[in-house]
Specification:
six-stranded mixed β-sheet, four-stranded antiparallel β-sheet, 2 domains, binds adenosine-5'-triphosphate, alpha/beta, Rossmann fold, Alpha-Beta Plaits, single chain, globular
Length: about 300
């Protein structure tokens, strides 16, 4: 699979999907978006919104009723795409009688890894996900939920995939596991991989995703950039009486201003403007009570859109 850096890696065009005949459920309605190579792209939205259905279409497990999906210009179920794809399903329901080791080795062999390398890779990844040798000797049916997620993540990463689809990767994991998932996603991005992440853990989505798509009742409501190459957001807190002076100073500085409550203002500005922010406020006589990078406020977006 050779991705062209000038073209989106994943292209979704007007995809619709229904389930059932007598009382059909419209799981996706004309969804269109693109994911760029090297991006971490999040899917968020309420339960039953259609996120897992969309992932299944992106993976080629389900065929859209209408519309079109390509990955690196190919159909999602093309062998060349599959070879480069890692996938963690929402419910990890692997062959329960296999031991963790046998399961991971099976997948390493399916990937075509030669024998000594396959074993090394399995042990390296198991260790990375906190599964010791005694865990690997146990059957998967005896694994806890978090352990199943961990073995699932190890499996998804076996082939160093160029594109990773993760459906609720941190669900059921302890805080260390959550941090590990975050690290793994950011490392995948650092080596140039593309990640599509479906998650309800908005704080994690905010931390790792470059953009998020908000899906509701099968429709793509909006796509929000969480990281922009040249811009950033800051939250300023001042005395409520000083707010008009603060707004005037910020407008003079030429930044985008979003007034909040209780003397709070969020600004969107060029990163190069950051050093000028505090001096502009102080020289206008505005008491600066707080000045800090502003979170993307996905929770607020979620509540507004849901
Ligand atoms: N195989 C199926 N047969 C019938 N209906 C289905 C099937 N799979 C999903 N649906 C329905 O399609 C809609 C979208 O479901 P989907 O699992 O994609 O949502 P989701 O956004 O992933 O939800 P959650 O956040 O709860 O995991 C729901 O109404 C669901 O009941």
């Amino acid at each position: 699979m050779s991705a062209n850096p000038d073209h989106p890696l994943v292209r979704v065009e007007a995809v619709s999907k229904r389930f059932g005949r007598r009382r059909p459920v419209q799981a996706l309605s004309s969804v269109s978006f693109e994911v760029q190579q090297g991006e971490v792209f999040g899917l968020i939205g309420p339960n039953g919104a259609g996120k897992t259905t969309l992932l299944s279409c992106l993976l080629g497990f389900l065929k859209p009723d209408e519309g079109h999906i390509t990955v690196a210009g190919l159909p999602p179920d093309a062998l060349a795409v599959r070879r480069q794809t890692g996938y963690l399903p929402e419910r990890v329901g692997y062959a329960p009688e296999l031991t963790g080791e046998a399961f991971l080795l099976l997948h390493a062999r399916l990937l075509g890894l030669p024998e000594p390398q396959a074993k090394d890779r399995v042990f390296e990844l198991a260790q990375r996900f906190g599964l010791g040798e005694s865990d690997l000797k146990r059957r998967l049916r005896t694994y806890s939920r978090g352990m199943r997620q961990r073995v699932g993540m190890a499996q998804a990463l076996l082939g160093e995939p160029a594109i990773l689809f993760l459906d609720e990767p941190a669900s059921g994991m302890d805080p260390q596991g959550v941090m590990l998932v975050r690290e793994v996603i950011l490392q995948a991005k650092a080596r140039g991989a593309t990640v599509v992440l479906n998650s309800h853990q908005l704080a994690e989505v905010e931390r790792v995703c470059d953009r998020v798509a908000f899906i509701k009742a099968g429709k793509l409501e909006r796509v929000e950039a969480l990281r922009e190459p040249e811009h950033t957001r800051y939250l300023i807190k001042t005395d409520p009486q000083a707010l008009p002076a603060a707004l005037e100073a910020l407008q003079k500085l030429g930044v985008e201003v979003f007034p909040g409550r209780d003397g709070e203002v969020t600004v969107r500005l060029l990163k190069s403007q950051i050093p000028a922010l505090a001096p502009a406020l102080v020289s206008a006589g505005v008491p600066v009570l707080a000045l800090q990078p502003a979170p993307a406020q996905l929770e607020k977006l979620f509540v507004e859109e849901a």
